[in-house]
Amino acid sequence: MKITFLATHLKINGGNRIILTYAHLLARKGHDVCIIAPTKGNFRRAVKNALNIKPNWMPMAAKVIWTAGYDENNIPDGDVVVATAWQTAGPVDSYAPQKGKKFYLSLHYESLYHGPAELVDPTYRLPLTKIVPSRWLQKIIKDKFQSDSHVIVIPVDLDLFKFLPEYRKPAPIRVMMLNHTYPWKGTKIGLEVFSRIKNDFPETQLVMFGVRNKKVDNPLCDEYHYNPKQEDLAKIYSSCHIFVCTSEYEALGMPPMEAMACKCANVTFDTGGSNEYAIDGNTSFVAKHNDADDLETKLRLAIRNEKLRNEISQRGYDFIRSNFSWDDATEKLADIFSNG
Prior knowledge:
18% strand; alpha/beta; Glycosyl transferase family 1 domain-containing protein; Rossmann fold; 13 strands
């Protein structure tokens, strides 16, 4: 198949990692795949296209075409054309049939955080075949917009994210958390919870990572990793006993899944999409939605009860590694493209 993905940009983030991984693996399976990415400046675009410039932060077998925007003249004819965000859904809907069957890979309920509802919500009503990463987002789109969608749970790269026991020491307990500037990611809540934890468990260490702030000016943070290389993340996850997800909502949530694949005990709010992998008392410690007191209770339990922490981290590890794979997800996506 000739498949075209429309991206809003190709900077490093979780959504782009998913889009680029799908494009890369589909190309590896023999499909003719290209990614349309806008960039400013006629000269800059010409140079990037002439030199075949691609994102340098992950492998990429698909082609990248740098364009001024999403005008139909910039889009190659093909079998499939895929919107990957609300900004690209309208253009895809407007294209002539020769651009391909029309799909909408929606990675979050974007009205929550990524755009004004009056602009975002209408995109879920467009006659595009929708693909989402969780039953939580599928239900929202069905209930609010009477639109059906296919669910493909985004997998973790199990070759990259794996437990490296040489980096895990018995003590002190190390708790890992994302540092982010978006309020809905909950960094402020996480730090407030950890400050109370630190009073009773003073030896516990906080390890943070992020791509937006080069440093963290907070005495609670014992160790900070700015924009770590992908191959280093598994070492950082493996060095920590517990991962805490403080997001308000996630359509899925890749960092907790990556941490679980590295045998961290996952402590998380019920973020909606987390229901695909976070089962309280089984694969994770799950707190009530956005309830900081309950998150503190779960984190205290994970720190205090070593036996339970180890059991849950093992079950979470097994669940992530046995239920989701990129090969299966890519095959399912290709089947939806073929039959959609």
